[in-house]
């Protein structure tokens, strides 16, 4: 039997909706863009793969667990608070790193691995993506085979990897071209990182404050 043949319109709707979620600028996009602005394509691609791996993990968890995955409202609120705090911390880290002169940027071992882990944690902790896949799993409940669930996870990874790798490559190429140009190009590259840091902190603080204000105590 062909994959997704039982309810093809539902799967097409789920994949289309995920593409819209994926393309919407958010913390994952900003994280990869910040890595691209750092000037290292390997670091940027590591971040892209981390985001894609996190998205695929969420998709697999939601569809493999199916209806058994019914998180309570307090757990959802806590995850949103934690995500807001995480993104705020990442924004602050980006700001402090971008504020240093280029000649003082520290060179650390295993930077690619560190950026992969950060991107993976940010992607897995994204409540918007998590709730999307939970809703999608509920929509497709009863019509999904195990092979289809695994295939969906692989498709999510492939789509996210292609999109965020494109962001990493194109953004990184632009930043490297600026850095090789005039001193003003270096300042523009740093300004991009500062803007990414401000955007991350603003997004994280907004999510954290909004969720904290909604708590019952």
UniProtKB/TrEMBL annotation:
It comes from the Bacteria. Pfam families: LysE. Its main location: membrane. One of its GO terms (cellular component) is plasma membrane. Signal peptide: none annotated. Keywords: Cell membrane, Membrane, Transmembrane, Transmembrane helix. One of its GO terms (molecular function) is amino acid transmembrane transporter activity. The keyword DNA damage does not apply. The chain crosses the membrane at residues 12-33, 45-69, 75-95, 116-138, 150-170. The keyword Phosphoprotein does not apply. It is a multi-pass membrane protein. It is found in: Cell membrane. This is Lysine transporter LysE.
